[in-house]
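Dig into what follows:
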Amino acid sequence: MKYKPWPKRDPIKNYFQLPNEIFLLGLSPGALAVYSYLLCCENRKTYRCWPSYKTIGRAVRMSANTVRKYVCELEERQLISTESTTVTTRDGLKRNGNLLYTIRPIQLALDRFYEQQLTQMDVAAERQRVAKALALRGNKCDSA
């Protein structure tokens, strides 16, 4: 038997793609790790998955509370959306289940990010205009 250094892998089943644009959004390393894990778990046809905070935390070596923080960051950036689920126990009681994560198109997050940057530029330009106007008024008062 010939030695194979790497097992042969099916590219569709054993790999997932991370969009290049994700690095433009300025995500924290933890949010990037959680997003990557969600992409790894997602159903490629429905773009959904439902791992628990604990499961995600074990995979990316974070606590459940830290994972929750990064999930909120990803939701704010519109990279994912979440829905609550319920589970019926054997006793017939309804309990909260894991969140159902839907991976949203990256273009929506990019559009929002660019819109925020343009708004920040407009605010900065307005501040500069006001500072310049105040400086001119200050110079007029000093010369009088």
Remarks:
- Residues 77 and 109 are 6 Å apart (CA to CA).
- Helices lie at 11-14, 29-41, 53-60, 64-76, 106-143.
- The mean pLDDT is 87.
- Strands lie at 48-49, 80-83, 86-88, 94-96, 100-103.
